[in-house]
Design brief:
This protein folds into two domains: 221 residues, P-loop containing nucleotide triphosphate hydrolases (Rossmann fold, 3-Layer(aba) Sandwich); 132 residues, OB fold (Dihydrolipoamide Acetyltransferase, E2P), CATH 2.40.50.140. Helices cover 26% and strands 25% of the residues. The strands form four sheets. Strands 4-5-6-1-7-8 form a six-stranded mixed sheet, with helices on both faces. Strands 11-10-9-12-18-19 form a six-stranded antiparallel sheet. Strands 13-17-14-15-16 form a five-stranded antiparallel sheet, with no helix packed on it. A hairpin with a 6-residue loop joins strand 18 and strand 19. Helix 2 packs across helix 4, helix 2 packs parallel to helix 5 and helix 4 packs across helix 5. It is elongated, with a radius of gyration of 28 Å.
């Protein structure tokens, strides 16, 4: 589950409530079949990966990975018994001022189990060569993998991840994103992932929850949110670049208009719009669902203000021109090999099966008849 939304919408607060770092004012938090509202964080069997890594600087990578395992109550029973060492060895361990050489050290069954778990996690994350290093000797990507490994090593019921990739560069972010998805599927552990990055949300989430001002706007699979947003906020937030919006007048049975712009809707819109005759609506269309077309009343005229050529695709920022009101800016994705000049006037056609309509008062989506979905 990915929690996505603008800054301050409540994503991290919700994560901290689940982890036990904040106290809820109402409601229940249930992990598995257990209500955990009154349990302290250490008893919730939850592991959290923070945005700033939160590694212990005085510990090696190995000890950072092993820290949670050493404190875990599940490994307490593997402690050696009181008489596991001969008396002379106990005296030597107490009185010596320096640790014994590694070959002479006693390794408890519990510590051997921890070592095996650390090695397994290190191999999964490809950090087995870093186990003797300290956090200050690691790159950002390496620190992030250690933070992930520390959470994974405990094998908790739930992973909580609070924007763990925000401090990484674009290339490393893409690599680590793929790695997290792969590991999550391997381990099969419920994971709640917080981000404000829509690309992360769309590529990582089995389901996405869109939050705004502390309220859930929509929960669904990534493509469901993209293709069928429930309201204008979700439509604008999911997708990059965001959806374009234009106020239009509706005349029954199927005509949208704004100035000289005239667009006839497909027939499946007739029933859901029957109560909106003579009213204003908000037309929404994504940049990838606009295309360069000949001048015609059903197309939108706009003057190109900026061209962003990305190689695999090109985005145009254009200003709608008179008689369209108001003079809004729109974004359009065009073919990468199309030559477009700043200041050029183009007409853009709307894909009729990809448009969205919203009530301008409630901001809720108006849904076409089921046969069009």
């Amino acid at each position: 589950m990915v929690l996505v939304g603008p800054s301050g919408c409540g994503k991290s607060t919700l994560l901290r409530l689940i982890a036990g770092l904040e106290e809820p004012t109402g409601g229940s938090i249930v992990v598995g079949n257990q209500r955990v509202n009154q349990l302290p964080p250490k008893e919730r069997d939850i592991a959290m990966v923070f945005q700033n890594y939160a590694l212990y600087p005085h510990m090696s990578v190995y000890d950072n990975l092993a820290f949670g395992l050493r404190r875990s109550p599940h490994t307490q029973a593997l402690e050696p018994t009181q008489n596991a060492l001969p008396s002379w060895a106990e005296t030597l361990l107490v009185e010596t001022t320096r640790p014994l050489p590694k070959p002479l050290r006693y390794v408890s069954p519990r510590e051997r189990q921890i070592a095996g778990q650390v090695q397994m996690v290190a191999q999964l994350l490809q950090i087995e060569t870093l186990l003797d290093r300290f956090p200050k000797q690691l790159s950002g990507g390496q620190k992030q993998r250690v933070a992930l490994g520390r959470a994974m090593a405990r094998n908790p019921q739930v992973f909580l991840m609070d924007e763990p990739l925000s401090n990484l560069d674009a290339k490393l972010r893409a690599e680590t994103r793929s790695q997290i998805v792969k590991l999550q599927r391997q381990l099969g552990i419920t994971t709640i992932y917080v981000t404000h990055d829509q690309t992360e949300a769309m590529t990582m989430g089995d389901r996405i929850t869109v939050l705004n001002n502390g309220q859930i706007q929509q929960i669904g699979r990534p493509l469901d949110l993209y293709n069928r947003p429930l309201n204008q906020f979700v439509a604008e937030f999911i997708g990059s670049p965001p959806m374009n919006f234009l106020p239009v007048a509706f005349k029954a049975p199927l005509l949208l208009s704004n100035g000289d712009f005239r667009f006839t809707l497909p027939h499946h819109w007739e029933e859901p719009l029957s109560a909106y005759d003579g009213r204003l609506l908000t037309l929404g269309v994504r940049p990838e669902h606009l295309s360069v077309a000949p001048a015609a009343p059903k197309n939108l005229p706009a003057r190109v203000e900026r061209v962003e050529a990305l190689g695999s695709e090109t985005y145009l920022m254009a200003q709608l021109i008179q008689p369209l009101q108001p003079a809004l800016s729109i974004q359009v994705r065009v073919e990468p090999d199309r030559s477009v000049q700043v200041g050029e006037t183009l007409w853009f056609a709307i894909a009729p099966d990809k448009l969205h309509l919203f009530d301008p008062q409630t901001k809720q989506a108006l849904v076409p008849a089921a046969d069009s979905l």
